[in-house]
Amino acid sequence: MTSMNGVAALTLPDVDEDWSSWLDGRCQGQLAEARRLVDEMNTHPAAGSTDILCRWNDVNVALSNAASVASLIAQVHPDDAVRAKAEVAEQEADRFATDLSLDKDLYDVLSAIDTTALGADARRVVDHALRDFRRGGVDRDDGTRERLRAIADRETELQQEFSRNIREDVRSISVHRNQLQGLPADFVEAHPASEDGRHTITTDYPDVRPFLTFAEDAQARREIHVQFLSRAWPANEVILQELLALRAEHAALLSHRDWADYDAEIKMIGSGSAIADFIERITQAAERSGYRDRDILLERMRQDQPDATAIDRADSTYYAELVRRERFDVDAQEVRTYLDFAKVRQGLLDVTGRLFGVSYAHVDAPVWHSDVTAYDVHLEGDLLGRIFLDLHPREGKFKHAAQFTLVSGVAGRQLPEGALVCNFPRGLMEHSDVVTLFHEFGHLLHHILAGRHQWVTFSGVATEWDFVEAPSQLLEEWAWHADVVRTFATNAAGEPIPAELVAKMRAAHEFGKGYLARTQMFYAAVSYQVHTRTFDDLTEAERELQSTYDVFPFVEGTHFHASFGHLGGYTSAYYTYMWSLVIAKDLLSAFDAGDPFDVAIATRYRETILAAGGSRDAADLVQDFLGRPYNFEAFTRWLDGEA
Ligand SMILES: [Zn+2]
After folding, report:
1. Residue 220 and residue 40: Cα distance in Å, rounded?
2. pLDDT at position 438
């Protein structure tokens, strides 16, 4: 058993049959412990402020332990009975958290703490706890608290149903052999014809992404695009409408104008109206380069379809790839011959290890599926935590790419453990997959490096939610640097990818950044506006907002909101990705563009920003690192720059 000062990693079940009882033991056990601790706090109040706070921390450790395991296992376990059980445990943990946030006695206990005698960290824990109690509605009358409790329960159920519908609704199209024209040989090989001579293409990422990028047949591309953006529709339309109405009521009961304003209160952005302003600001900033690059796509499309007057997203990925190949001389199929999954995974570990001074030791620990690999993470000889990489698709598994917490680290008590859950092919990858891998790994590193705080509410990625993407977006930059990529991207003959090709890939990648920003603002506007206005038909909201914010027109027959998973967790805050990117570009300006392995600056970044977790406001961490407040300059320079 690996341990640091007696702190050991969690032991997962070794045998498939044990999962169900293990999950019960972990989730029910930790929830029972949390309940016991709360009862003790309410019935036998501790004398000293620090004692009260330590008990409060214990409650949060236990609750976080139950909730983390449940939310990971609900998305990844191969046995659907275990996933279903984890969903129930997740609901119980959520319900307990809601009860906690409405517990007046406990609120009184914490309110009585004399914070003048506490240090800055402890004072922050108290301030945030009281703020969160008030945001939960603890100081409202009994009827309001009951209603808030009922709303929260229903919101959890609906969010789970929303995400389950997306996860389980895999659609497909059936194509002729000649409709596979343009796709890589290994893709064609992996999709053999069935008895009727046709080939099935599903809406899972490893199918749909290459198909939209490479398939020459415009009709087939449109069919898969429409299927992809029809997942979970109409089932999720009904669910979303109920969820949005509940969130609006929830916010109103807590005296907020709308859900977006309530949600933004504890984020860097601060208010709902600031989200609207931010969306307008980025929309303007991307105007010039967005339409410029869109017109280049349309011009290229006209070589194939001379009478085309517009290009939409069923065609934009394909023509962007053609433009990249022809204008920038980047052939994605050549690129992928250098991107073998196993080498990329090892390369990611080597690169981040070198940059941040950590090392990863493969451990033969029990995992939930044979695809999963586990590593212990060490920093200067100390065991920091454990990571799990679950990187290939399988039936019933989470369909996107994300980092999940298994355990939140607490100094001297429990090691941080986290998982990357992605859907990459097993053989050759697209470079965009490599970027996604670096991105998600940025979250995982943040989780592990910030896992040594005394207070669990500071642990890991517990920063403001609209800052949380910045460390990940920053790490993406390393996936574009030739000196970095050449360390792991080698072809079957062992030759590294030419530096010149990486430079061209980067230039090609810059192409379209303006229109991509506009598409992002379309998504952000959907996320914000469905939480601030009432739409009878969400597809109509999409049609309206796409014409306002995107440079691409609406595609008839699509219902993107139904599979827009972020409406579940991020709610009105999808702007977060662009907001974080503004800050990521600013953070990047402090690094040496010529030396991607400048350990001194990476160490300072690791210590100042990553290790701090949620112990201070993100704006202050960024200011400490940059030596000045963050601003938009690096971002707008990048966005408006020529490809
Ligand atoms: Zn992310």
Report:
1. 63
2. 98
Mean pLDDT, the chain, rounded, equals 95
The answer to whether 510 and 643 have CB atoms below 8 angstroms apart is: yes
Q: What is the structure's pLDDT at 1?
A: 42
CA–centroid distance, residue 304 to ligand 1 (Å): 37
Going from the Cα of 440 to the center of ligand 1, the distance in angstroms, rounded, reads 6
Distance from Cα 472 to the centre of ligand 1, integer Å? 6
Ligand 1 mean position, distance from CA 329 (Å): 30
Cα 436 to ligand 1 centre (Å): 9
Give, in order, the Cα–Cα distances in Å from 263 to each of 251, 259, 464, 527.
9, 6, 11, 12
CA 286 to ligand 1 centroid distance, Å: 22
Asked if the model's pLDDT at residue 354 lies above 50, the reply is yes
* CA of 443 relative to ligand 1 center, distance in Å: 7
Element (H, E) at 235: helix 235-253
The answer to whether residue 3 scores a pLDDT higher than 70 is no
- Give the distance (Å) from ligand 1 centre to CA of residue 532: 25
Q: Identify the band that residue 117 occupies on the pLDDT scale cut at 50, 70 and 90.
A: confident
Average of per-residue pLDDT across 242-261:
97
Rounded Cα gap, residues 348 and 489, in angstroms: 10
- Rounded to the nearest angstrom, the distance between the alpha carbon of 527 and the centre of ligand 1 is 17
CATH number for 12-139: choose from 1.20.1050.40, 3.40.50.11690, 3.40.50.300, 1.25.40.340: 1.20.1050.40
Pair of tokens at residue 378: 């060490």
Cα of 439 from ligand 1 centre, angstroms = 6
Q: How far is the CA of 499 from the centre of ligand 1 (A)?
A: 27
Per-residue pLDDT tens for 539-565?
999 999 999 999 999 999 999 999 999
**Å from CA of 442 to ligand 1 middle:** 8
Cα of 353 to ligand 1 centre, how many Å?
20
Where do we find the tokens 């433009």?
Answer: 323
SS3 label, residue 155: helix
How far is it, in rounded angstroms, from Cα 567 to Cα 531? 10
| 327 Cα–ligand 1 center, Å | 30
Give pLDDT, residue 330.
87
**Cα gap 191→201, rounded to integer Å:** 8
The Å distance, Cα 459 to ligand 1 centre, comes to 17
Chain-centre distance of CA 634, in angstroms?
A: 24
Encode pLDDT of 427-468 as tens digits: 999 999 999 999 999 999 999 999 999 999 999 999 999 999
Residue spans per domain, the chain:
12-139, 170-228
Cα–Cα distances in angstroms (integers) from residue 640 to residues 295, 467, 512, 519, in the given order: 16, 23, 11, 16
What is the distance between the alpha carbons of residues 328 and 37, in angstroms, rounded to a whole number?
A: 62
- 579: pLDDT strictly greater than 70: yes
DSSP strand pairing (417-421 vs 402-407)? antiparallel
Q: Could you tell me the distance, in angstroms and rounded to a whole number, from the CA of residue 589 to the centre of ligand 1?
A: 20
The CA 213 to ligand 1 mean position distance, Å, reads 23
Distance 583 CA to ligand 1 centre (A): 14
